[in-house]
Amino acid sequence: MNDRSPDGEAVWAHRSRLRVIPPVQPRKLAKVPFVELADGRLQGVVSSGSDISRVYVSSIAAGTHNYNCSTNNNRPCGGLYGSPCKHLQALTAEAVLQYGLDRVATYLRVEVPEGADLIACLSGGHEPAPAAMVFSRFLRHLAYLEVPATTVPIPEMHWFPSEGAVH
Amino acid sequence: MLAVQLAGLLDGDPEGTGEALALVDGFDDALVHGLARLSEERAEAPAALAGAFSATPIGDRLAEAAAKVASGSITEEHLTALAGGRAALFGAVHDALLADLDAALGRERAPWYPAPRSEQDTAANLLGGARSWLRELAITGWRGVDHDLVSAVDQITEGLTVVPGLRRLAVLLDGFAAELRASCPVGTMEHLPVRRWADLWTRALLLAQDGVLPGEPRPVATVSGRLLILGVDVHEHGTAVQFQVHAVLEPADGGQARLVRTSVTAAKVDTIVGPALWKLAHDHKVLLAALAGHLSLEVTDLPLLDGGDVIWHDDRASLGKPADPFTTARLHLAGVLAPAVPPLERVPVRIAEPVLIEGYEVTGDGSFDLGGSVLAVDTARLPGCGPLTPKLVAGSSACVGLVRWDGGCWLLQPLAVQAKVKRETVAVGTGDWAQGPTDPKVVKAEARSGDAVAVLRERAGRLLRQ
Ligand SMILES: [Zn+2]
Fold first, then answer.
1. Model pTM?
2. Which ipTM value was assigned to this complex?
3. Do B167 and A141 touch (CB under 8 A)?
């Protein structure tokens, strides 16, 4: 039984316990601690290679494939010379690890021929985009790590079965 | 669970279930398209739902709510009444299903006693915000949901998350909103989880009523004795994981053994998956050691809630002798006292009744054939943080699992199996890796992907306190 199979309509319509969002794959987080497909963009946060306290906010818009990269204080990335910088390359590579090529390509609406690199298939140009919102979503993401665990039962979690025994 | 018990369980749905579910389905379909756009055909759905209660004290209120909603006047009060009606119908279905299951298993269930009232919470503005977001959702319908509508709940859940008494609502809204966000634009989605999203919407609206969630858990008793673990059920969405341990409590005072659950829920992010999840529960070392080592626990003065949940305190527990879940199940499940289900939790999705099943043949699709009665096995839901795999389940000779009901069918969710590994019969359970994976292949894979929890905690420590 696979919830996401094409013949799953009846399953989807009448089941209460589903995993609607496919689980993501584990990956090393040090270089690109945050990646998401949200608000019509592949966006995330990439660590600076040289300065531990600096991060870059990189994003690629679905459809147009226009991209941007800047520091979290909106200073443009020096690596954008008419083509995606190394941060954008790291972002897409890690997104593919996390979500799988299909999910990222579908979200960005890009055709990736067999064996090709996703970022090489993008046709957009540089277009400034606000970094602050993505950065604040990253901070919100990190804030979950600081929420204390609880031993009070949460019956609502019965709607969210774990899955993903893949070993 | 014996063949004759399974045959009894599978022998037709309880009376009235089909009719109740048809009314629920009609209402759920109205939520797909939005209550602002009720066509003539769907406009009858809320009225039909209300009609089921015409002979009850809430009948008038529901009928009025259905009429008002159909005429386009969609207030929070009307929506709450309809959500209450839907929950009551599902509650009746739950009761009938659980009664069938108890009858089939010959399981005795304790009556429900209300817990003492406690002070109400003072987060009225947060609850009001949640209710008004849920109203917007219902008016818009799943098909109309866009990024802006989903994002509107972010601040509300952020606020709810830090109020301990409202964590249930926060965790629910967070999981729900993430699904809506990932499905945007929902209008182009091929299949919708119609019943599921209506379930989540209904429960959220009920929890968001003032005074429904107690500020503090309200125990009905404290318990002491020996805790024998049957297995752990793992629940997970992007930002939360709950480890729910099912166990038999042998009370220290010598009374009847009882089924209990005890849980640890941790906040997380989507990139923390698989065996790394256990690190989030590391404060509960005694519990994790008992899970990983198949050990019994001696517990003292643990608060017991009205639904059979024991509130875990690691400092009130100590490790006991080895205890194999299969021995526990064989010894106790036939005569155990099952807990009552609190009113607000009466919903089929919460049915998760521990059973032992053996002597089955595994069919081609992985179901268990027990003397001609076939029980579907939910192998798609084996948690990634444990060693149980569909292959192990398919090769097993005995299984301790949870009987569940979903989408009109009874299912078995394995918690532990007895299977031959290298010609030796071993017990493998979902909690075996609670202290870290023991399979060298998995240990290696974990090392490759690094310590996600440590990396993110380090970032959080640096960036959140600037
Ligand atoms: Zn850059």
1. 0.95
2. 0.96
3. no
